[in-house]
Design a protein that fits this description.
The chain contains 6 helices and 3 strands. It has 129 residues and is mainly α.
Length: 129
């Protein structure tokens, strides 16, 4: 799992991973887009700093962190799922990616975009109820 940020070989890295039969999950432009989808749908192409600012406000509004959004928050999954956000994010990601065609669309040009939901769905099979 990785995000685009300013990574120049983003598409090649995805291809290389798939060629090695890895399950590759990516976000363009940043992982923060995936986190944002826990709160609302968006198909607006924003810079990662703008996603961070939106998350900072949302984390304060929803009282998920008194400091707002910061990278590497402990128990991020639990916080986001505390209000049903994980299912919301999966639905929002599926909606956004519904017209993405991996045979003709380049992930580096598909912004915002994410396939992190596929990884979360797979890992969710191993979580206890």
């Amino acid at each position: 799992m990785f995000d685009k940020d300013d990574f120049r070989n983003f598409d090649q890295a995805i291809k290389d991973g798939k060629d090695k039969e890895y399950h590759v999950a990516w976000s363009n432009q940043s992982f923060e887009y995936w986190i944002y989808l826990h709160f609302a749908y968006s198909d607006v192409n924003l810079h990662r700093d703008q996603w961070n600012a939106k998350l900072d406000e949302l984390f304060k509004t929803h009282k998920l962190s008194r400091y707002g959004y910061k990278k590497n928050i402990k128990n991020l999954y639990g916080l986001l799922d505390s209000f049903g956000g994980v299912e919301t994010a999966i639905n929002n990601a599926e909606r956004r990616m519904s017209d993405f065609d991996p045979k003709k669309d380049k992930p580096s040009k598909y912004a915002p975009g994410t396939t992190v939901h596929t990884l979360v769905e797979e890992l969710g099979k191993y979580l206890e109820d």
